[in-house]
Prior knowledge:
The chain is mainly beta. Helices cover 0% and strands 54% of the residues.
Amino acid sequence: QVQLIESGGGLAQPGGSLRLSCKMSGSLYRIEIMGWYRQVSGKERELVAVKMTGRRTDYADSVKGRFTLSRDNANKTLYLEMNNLKPEDTAVYYCHAKRPSWGNVPGMDYWGEGTRVTVST
Length: 121
């Protein structure tokens, strides 16, 4: 079992910055996909940034050049550095981890409870 706890959300002004953290606990064995999603009330959850083992990090077009995903393996923490924030970045941000299926063992998706980011004057 994997637990994900997000922190770092809050209020930021347009053009400002925030850093989200996702502390992971439990066995990370074969957790090969990690990333961040966000959701605005009434809309579907959307991918913000994702890192698959052995591959480069992918970002949503809307955040490219502004957001950076990073990982501290020693502390089992995933980060999302958000710069030049815009009002449209306002959402609840969720940390996600995935253990793909392997043979007859089904895959598992893990989610945090989310941290709210509000970008406003």
